[in-house]
Structures are given as C-alpha cells and as structure tokens.
Automatic annotation (TrEMBL):
It comes from Loxia curvirostra. GO terms for molecular function: ligase activity; ubiquitin protein ligase activity. Residues 391-730 form the HECT domain. This is Probable E3 ubiquitin-protein ligase HECTD2. It catalyses: S-ubiquitinyl-[E2 ubiquitin-conjugating enzyme]-L-cysteine + [acceptor protein]-L-lysine = [E2 ubiquitin-conjugating enzyme]-L-cysteine + N(6)-ubiquitinyl-[acceptor protein]-L-lysine. The active site is at residue 698. PANTHER family: HECT-TYPE E3 UBIQUITIN TRANSFERASE, UBIQUITIN-PROTEIN LIGASE E3C.
Length: 730
C-alpha cells in the first residue's frame, strides 16, 4: 500500500476535498446522507429496491430482478481513442523496472484515471459498441486486474497521480442521469487496492457516497455487473468495505480521520454499497462467497440493543441503523440481540404476573415467575403437550422442568434433558410424525392426514423455547424447513393468510429426497418424447397406511399429459406439492407453535441458515478448542490426571466425544459462539477413584476423581458417559 511518505503528501489534496464538500452542499444536498439509508419505494414496481428495510412484511427475492431495465439511458459521450493493450502495458512495466525510468507507466496511470471518460477509454472492451444488456458491463476485467495488481509496485508519484485523477473525476458536476460509462467507472474504481490504506479513506468515502446516492435503476446495473467480478476480487472489495466501516467505528489512530460529527455519512454510505454486493452475491447459486463473509465482527462490540431499539422505533426512516442491513451483523451478535430481547420479554411477562397477584391481594409465589413444566418420563410427550397447552400465557417466562419422582433441581440441566428426550421420542420413526430420509440424513414432515395436529404445534413450541432459553437441539431438518419457518417472519394478523409457504425449487428437494429430485432432473433434460416415453399426467401418487392415493397437481391434472413443453411446470408443481401443499396443515401448526414463543421483530434479522444454527447449534466438534478454553478447579492443566484426560478424550471417536459433551453439558451440540461459550469446567472430586465421574450439567461442570493411570480413567469415563440418563441429588 501507500507508504508513510504518501500520507504526508495527502495534505496537498486538502483543497480538493474541501471543494468536494462545497460542491456537495451546492447541488441541493442531492447526495445528503439522509437519502442513503432506505430508498423511496412508492414507484418501485419496475425496479424493486435492493436495500429494503427488513421490517417490511414482504421479502424481496433477488431472483426477481428484471433482466432488462426500461429506465431512460442517457446518450454516452464519445470516448477518447486509447489503443494500449495488456501486452503493451506489461512490456512498459518490465522496461520501467529494468531501467528505473517510469515515465511511460506514469503517463498511462495519470491519463487513464484522470476522468471517467478516460477510464472507459482504457478499460471498455469496445468503445464504439452501444449499451444493450444489464448482464454485460463491457469491462475488460483482465486489463483492470493487471493494472491494479501492478499499481502498488509503482513509485509513490505514480500512485499519487492515480488518486489525484480519481479526485478530479469525483469533482465533476453531475447534471441529469448518469451514463453507463459513469457506472462502469464506478465499478472499476471500487476495485482499486489503494483504498485498503487508511490515508485514502477521505477519497474512498466520497466515492462511496456518490455510488450510494445513485438511483435504484443504476444500482441494479451495478449489482448485475458486480456478480461478474471474480471471486478473489469480489472478496477483496467486500473486505475493503468491512475494514472501512470497522476503522471508522474504532480508528487505531483517530487523528487520521475527520471528526465523526463531520462525517456521519461515511458508515451509511459504505454499508449501502456493501448491500449492493450482498445483493449481487444472492443472485448467484451457489453464491460467489459465503454469506458469513459479509459479517463484521467489529459490530459485536457496539451497543447492539441501541441499534435494535433505534430500528424498532424509527423503522423505515432516514435514521441509520445496522439492523436495516442485517447481513452485516454476525450470528453471534444476532444471538445477543435475540437473547436480550427475550430476557426483556420474560421480565415484562413475569412483572405483569407479579402485579396481577399483588393487585388481587394474593401472596406472591416465586414459581409464578417461571414456566413450570412437570412431566413423567413414562408419559413424556402427552404430559408435555398438556403442560404447554394449559400454560400458553406463560410460554415467555423462564423455563423450569421437573421430572415426577426425581429429586433433581432444575438449574438448567433438567431443561436440557427434557428437550433431548422429548425430541428423541417425537422424531422416532415409529411415532409417525416425521419421516427420516437416509440418503439426506434429515427428517421431513409426514404427509399423512390426521384429526389433530397439536403435536406438530408442540414441536414448533419446543424449537421456540429452545431459542428463547438458549438451548441447542439435535434436530435434523433440511434448510428448506427454516426458509418456510420465516415465511412470513412475523405472524400475520389475518388468520386466513397462508403461512409456511415459500418458493421452493428442485435444489430444495435435492436436500430432502435426492433420489426423487435426480429423477425429476433427468425428466427435465430428457431428449426424447416425454409424453410417449413416460406416459405421465399432472398427478402425484402417495401411499398412506397401505392405500395408494392420487392427487391432481392442477385442476383436471389426471387428464393432462406431461410433455416436453410443459414438463418444467410439472416438476415445479410436483416440488411445490411435496414441500408445501401436501404438508400444509402439519407445517402451519409447527409454524404457529414456534412463533407462539419466539414472536419478535428480531427474527426479521435472521437468514434461514442462521435460524438453524440458533436452534441446533453446530455439529462440528473441536475438542482441541474445548481443551484451550477449559477452566479448572482443584486441578492445574499440567496435572497428570488432566493430561491423561485430554489424551483419552482427543483419542475418542466422534460418537464418544458427543457422549462426553452430552454428559457434561446436557447437549452434544456446539453453541453459536463455539466451544469457548460452553464455559466448561473440570473440578477435582475428592471421592474414591473407584467412583465414576459426575457431571453438573447446569454449570457445564465435570467432577473428575484423581485416577491413578490413563487406562483406569478411560474405562471409568466411558462407563460414565455411556450411562448418563437421569438426575439425583448428593
């Protein structure tokens, strides 16, 4: 990047920056930060906004973006003729390195970046070709990459000339709509590696401000063009934007930047530009980079609840909040928001119960502050169903579980045990509520019709209670389930509105029934005569309790043959039937059960994948990470018994490691924050070494006697973790 000498040189650019600010104020505040947050959507039918406030009930599918925009395209001015090729530029670079004479390279850079027209003249594939598609930016990506890769290896005066030229381009007074050449220049400038250096941030901020203030139609062009950037360059631009936001929030050297009060628009501008790249990433399947690459972990250290409350209070307004752009908030930060929101709801419900009790002049009882569930192990499902049905008003209180006939006090461990046993029983194949698909190793809803769907509501309530009480569950639903669970994310007021219905594709079916999905995929690619060779109609046949039943996929479907022309419609209706229509009542009960506990605007911040992580945790165990974060009581980590313990545990099979985790914590899943969030502790037990280890799952604590050798420790530990059901009091 730029060296220290370059930073001093930037003081000579102060007059340019001052001029930029003056011109911004003189153009009717057209680029004012208040217009950067949420676009006006009144006329958004043709061009749906990219950065909708997530509090809006509907969610925009990025797949629905128009391929051709009918916005008026201003005429593009004629470009200067520049004939330098990649080979010519590379030859100039080699000659300059060898001779030390950088004049030719300096001239190229200073000319190319002197204006937006010159940028297009250098990097547009065909300077004479008219614009005709949103999918092709006409940018010579190879040439751009070569020029930028070489830039940081040039002398400082060359690098400064590039920045000076960018400032000249940003100073141009804009009248009327931007041309596609302007947008092309913005797309190229965003990839400039110089903007990784904090000394260029003032210039970078003004570039971001101009891009953020573009029209919706222009944003759509940038989104579609950005998805064509290579994965490496795309990731670099995203990382650069995230770094810019982080360093503006927590600058290592505050004196490098203007005071925050004078540049409050920096972060909103950068976040909105980042939203364009997030939208581009969503257009590609599979995405260019993982959605987690948009997380900014720096935001974990700001006042998240203030952000959340601002978003709740001001919603779709001109007041910026990171919650308007939830893709940038990490799953760990979202978990904090949901937990604190849950705690506030719990406190509010408990306080109201206490006030009601006092107002009736009744003696307050501490149990009224909790959701107390009392069950028998022999009647686990029926007792749980009855308890939750009777105590609907208490679902948002802190959960406490009691097993009838057992002396255990619930400090968290009994709750974990109740969840584990209940889930294990409900999802057993013999129970009939869910079907386990071996090929995909996941459960899906049984389509069998029944008179009462209350047990599906119970499963939904269990998932809601797990999120609400920060418990991880061993549930293996496909990603499609969590997409349906957020459709819509807020329960509609109109009870006639369909819930749990979302757009499903063949890819969703592949995650559940890969063999069937493969067969449908073969049908789509079949080159023969579909009607004559398959002899199928728009019908589905399913076996229910030994009886084959048929269902029409559309009216009179039994009389409509599947042909080469309509096979796509057939496959789509087939997938929709399996994943939506055939299980609607089951899933609707499940949906209402989940939202009866978890109803919160915080759910609007979540992606389906993030809901899955909150419910199930991560199945990936890293016992070495657990070893590094473990605390000790009565032992030192260098003690022989502790060294024996970790030698044994790290050598365990995955199944035994999961049993150990379940034995000590009540769950074999890893929470959102990783192993460190378990606060796992090993305590010295002064009992005889003939005793087995003991666990306090309420506190994630393992009590380990000082066994004399590794063989004895391994034997006792395996016996203990393999027989770990039930609770008692010492």
């Amino acid at each position: 990047g730029l060296e220290e000498g370059a930073k001093n040189q930037f003081s000579t650019f102060s007059n340019f920056i001052t001029t930029i600010n003056q011109k911004k104020e003189g153009i009717g505040n057209r680029n004012s930060p208040t217009q950067l947050v949420i676009p006006n959507i009144k006329n958004g039918r043709d061009h749906p906004p990219l950065c909708l406030d997530v509090r809006q009930k509907q969610r925009m599918s990025m797949d629905a973006l128009p391929q051709e925009l009918k916005a008026p395209i201003p005429p593009e001015p004629s470009l200067p003729i520049r004939t330098k090729t990649v080979k010519d530029f590379q030859d100039d670079m080699e000659k300059s390195k060898a001779s030390g004479d950088w004049k030719a390279v300096h001239n190229f850079y200073s000319t190319t970046f002197d204006s937006f027209l010159e940028i297009n003249a250098a990097f547009k594939k065909d300077t004479n070709s008219p614009f005709n598609t949103i999918e092709d930016s006409e940018i010579d990506a190879k040439f751009v990459n070569v020029v930028y890769d070489a830039l940081l290896n040039t002398p400082q005066d060359v690098q400064k000339s590039v920045l000076k030229g960018i400032i000249n381009g940003l100073l141009q007074e804009w009248t009327g709509p931007r041309t596609k050449d302007d947008l092309r220049a913005y797309c190229i400038l965003l990839q400039n590696p110089q903007f990784s250096n904090t000394s260029t941030y003032v210039i970078y901020a003004h570039l971001l401000r101009q891009i953020a203030a573009l029209t919706e139609a222009d944003h759509h062009f940038l989104v579609h063009w950005s998805k064509k950037i290579s994965q490496k360059r795309f990731k670099q631009v995203v990382d650069r934007l995230l770094q810019f936001i982080s360093l503006r929030l927590f600058p290592a050297k505050p004196e490098e930047f203007p005071p925050m009060v004078k540049c409050t628009w920096w972060i909103p501008s950068a976040t909105k530009v980042l939203a364009l790249f997030n939208a581009a990433n969503s257009l590609i399947s599979p995405p260019i980079i993982s959605y987690t690459d948009f997380y900014n972990s720096t935001l974990d250290h700001i006042d998240l609840m203030e952000e959340y409350h601002n978003w709740q209070c001001y919603g779709n307004s001109h007041r910026f909040s990171f919650c308007q752009y939830p893709f940038i908030i990490s799953i760990a930060a979202k978990k904090v928001i949901i937990q604190r929101d849950s705690e506030q709801q719990m406190i509010s419900i408990a306080r109201q119960s206490l006030v009601d009790k006092v107002s009736r002049r009744q003696k307050p009882d501490m149990n009224m502050l909790f959701l107390n569930v009392k069950v028998r192990r022999t009647h686990l499902v029926s007792d749980s169903l009855d308890e939750l049905a009777r105590k609907k008003a208490d679902l948002k209180k802190k959960l406490k579980v009691t097993f009838v006939g057992e002396a255990g006090l619930d400090m968290g461990g009994l709750t974990k045990e109740w969840f584990l046993l209940l889930i294990r029983q409900i999802f057993h194949p013999d129970y009939g509520m869910f079907t386990y698909h071996k090929d995909s190793q996941c459960h899906w809803f049984s389509s069998f019709k029944c008179d009462n769907y209350s047990e599906f509501r119970l499963v939904g309530a269990l998932m809601g209670l797990a999120v609400y009480n920060s418990i991880t569950l061993d549930i293996r639903f496909p990603p499609c389930c969590y997409k349906k669970l957020l459709s819509p994310p807020i329960v509609p007021c109109d009870h006639n509105t369909l819930v749990g219905i979302c757009g499903v594709t063949l890819d969703d079916l592949f995650q559940i029934m890969p063999e069937l999905a493969h067969g449908l995929s073969e049908l789509l690619s079949y080159e023969g005569n579909v009607e004559e060779d398959f002899y199928s109609t728009f019908q589905v046949f399913q076996e229910e309790f030994g009886v084959i039943k048929s269902y029409n996929l559309k009216p009179n479907g039994d009389k409509i043959p599947v042909t080469n022309r309509n096979r796509k419609e057939y496959v789509q209706l087939y997938v929709d039937f399996l994943l939506n229509r055939s299980i609607y009542k089951q899933f609707a009960a499940f949906y209402y059960g989940f939202h009866s506990v978890c109803a919160s605007y915080a759910l609007l911040l979540l992606r389906p994948e993030e809901v899955e992580i909150l419910v199930c945790g991560s199945p990936e165990l890293d016992m070495s990470a657990l070893q590094r974060s473990t605390q000790y009581e009565g032992y030192q980590k260098t003690d022989l018994t502790i060294r024996y313990f970790w030698d044994v545990v790290l050598g365990f099979s995955l199944d035994l490691q999961k049993k150990l985790l379940h034995f000590a914590t009540g769950s074999d899943r890893v929470p959102v924050g990783g192993m460190a969030d378990l606060n796992f502790k090993i305590s010295r037990s002064e009992t005889s070494t003939n005793w087995l280890p003991v666990a306090h799952t309420c506190f994630n604590q393992l009590c380990l006697p000082p066994y004399k050798n590794k063989k004895e420790l391994r034997q006792k530990l395996i016996i203990g973790i393999s027989n770990a059901e039930g609770f008692g009091l010492e």
